[in-house]
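User: My collaborator sent over this chain with a note saying "see what the structure looks like." That's all I know about it. Can you take a look?
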Amino acid sequence: MALTSTLHVCADRLGLLTAVLCAAAAGSKDLVVFYETVQALARSAITLADLPEILGITLAHEIGHLLLGPGRHSATGLMRADWSRGDLEDAAKGRLLFSKEHARRMRAELDEVTLRSESR
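Assistant: Without extra context I'll predict from the sequence alone. Here is the result:
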């Protein structure tokens, strides 16, 4: 089984998802990023992080869900469900990271996927 995913970058034309940056459906390998919401957060006064940084951490967070499973959030760091101003300041400084445990689990999942792929 190869690890394949689809990234959807969507416009939030209806304004329904103003508090949601992205979503990964349970059991799915699809990621959805609501670009206008990411853009609005980057323009807000609450963060020093710019658009590429916020888009990058948003994508990294969702890739984390692909490898860790849906709902795998942490109290701190990149896999927090809701980033604080401090988290976004850490992102601007390149310091918003996966926890050591999440990083270990993701590496193990990638190793497993690679082994399954190579055994075919």
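A starting point for your reply to your collaborator: The mean pLDDT is 78.
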